[in-house]
Write a structure and sequence with these properties.
Layout: E1 2-8, E2 13-15, H1 25-35, E3 39-43, H2 44-50, E4 58-62, E5 74-76, H3 79-93, E6 97-99, H4 103-109, E7 115-121, E8 129-130, E9 139-146, E10 150-157
Bound molecules: NADP nicotinamide-adenine-dinucleotide phosphate.
Residues 6-7, 14-15, 18-20, 42-46, 49, 62-65, 77-79, 100-105, 129 line the site of NADP nicotinamide-adenine-dinucleotide phosphate.
GO molecular function, one term: NADP binding
Function: Key enzyme in folate metabolism. Catalyzes an essential reaction for de novo glycine and purine synthesis, and for DNA precursor synthesis.
Enzyme class: oxidoreductase
Length: 162
């Protein structure tokens, strides 16, 4: 089971100059609530934009740089190896696995995702990094929550095809 979590605006914008284009603490709190105690997989740029390992989560970071090092994260040079390791840890710990971005990492794992956690930020912001268009017709809506600045929708992949 592989989950993806992302916040995007009405144009699918997710980032600007390696930062979030908005400052919405309620969305950060929701991200924390959903991903706590899980395994999170991210790209090196997202890791550097967060600036530290996410607490209470096992942090996997993807980079092609063989010299990249941080003592509190697990570093992978290949997404398939990161996924294999995460799945084997999941078997032992029952932790969820979240793909948390950025764009290149979302794109790589999209075909494998069973569950989306989308925060649809209200409005159109300025930025340079976008979430790809996706087809959710094979997913059902398990939950929605409306917040002041965004709408959260939880999609789960249908397991039966009639
Ligand atoms: N709105 C949201 O929910 C959200 C969530 C996350 C991120 N973001 C935003 O997204 C933006 C960053 O996205 P991004 O696409 O530019 O960067 P990214 O996906 O975070 O990181 C890209 C880096 O990951 C590594 N990488 C990518 N593919 C790899 C592969 N096949 N094997 C090994 N390493 C690989 C490379 O690191 P090296 O260059 O070190 O080799 C690459 O430069 C930022 O603006 C951030 O704020 C938004």
């Amino acid at each position: 089971m592989l989950s993806l979590i992302v916040a995007m605006d009405e144009n699918n914008l997710i980032g600007n100059n390696n930062c979030m284009p908005w400052d919405i603490p309620e969305d950060l709190n929701l991200f924390k609530e959903i991903t706590s105690n899980s395994i999170v997989i991210m790209g090196r740029k997202t890791f550097q934009s967060i600036g530290r390992p996410l607490p209470n989560r096992i942090n996997f970071v993807l980079t092609k740089d063989k010299n990249f090092f941080h003592k509190d994260i697990q570093i992978f040079n290949c997404p398939d190896n990161a996924l294999k390791k995460a799945l084997s840890l999941q078997k032992i710990t029952n932790k969820k696995i979240f793909i948390i971005g950025g764009k290149t990492i979302y794109e790589y794992f999209l075909p494998l995702i069973n569950e989306f956690h989308f925060s649809y930020i209200k409005g159109k912001f300025f930025g340079d990094t976008f979430f790809p268009e996706i087809n959710t017709s094979n997913f059902y809506i398990a939950n929605t929550r409306e917040f002041k600045d965004f709408i959260y929708i939880h999609y789960i992949k249908n397991t039966c095809n009639f």
